[in-house]
Amino acid sequence: MCFTDTIKTFGVVVDENSRFIAIDKGENVLFEVFRYDNGPDYFSEGLLRIVKNGKIGYANEQGKIVIEPQYDCAWPFANGKASVSNSCKVEKDGEHEIGQVKPGLKLIRKEMWLNKLSQAICVYTNLPDNSTLHERRLLKW
Hints:
Helices cover 4% and strands 40% of the residues. By secondary structure, the chain is mainly β.
């Protein structure tokens, strides 16, 4: 399956393991695209989430990895920043996994906001264990 009929810089296809893979014009694999809502992730502020060795990072519209995969949980960029964390736990509601995290994980306890240069611009610690992912995203800094 292919999600485009024309490759300008890269295209997203499904491989034999049902992963979303970015390929260049020469059909070389660039990276695995994060799975979001039963499809490949979408671009937000020029970046989409990618996966490597179980970690999440970001690539740009030219197919270049701009933030190496290093996070367990990662949200799309909004207003120049993205929420990321390496403190996650498994939580499922039946059909879906909860949150914007790699499959099977939910954000807990520590979260930070990251800019597009991969710099932490705000770190939250000691978040209540019973707060939801949505509540944590609404925290002011």
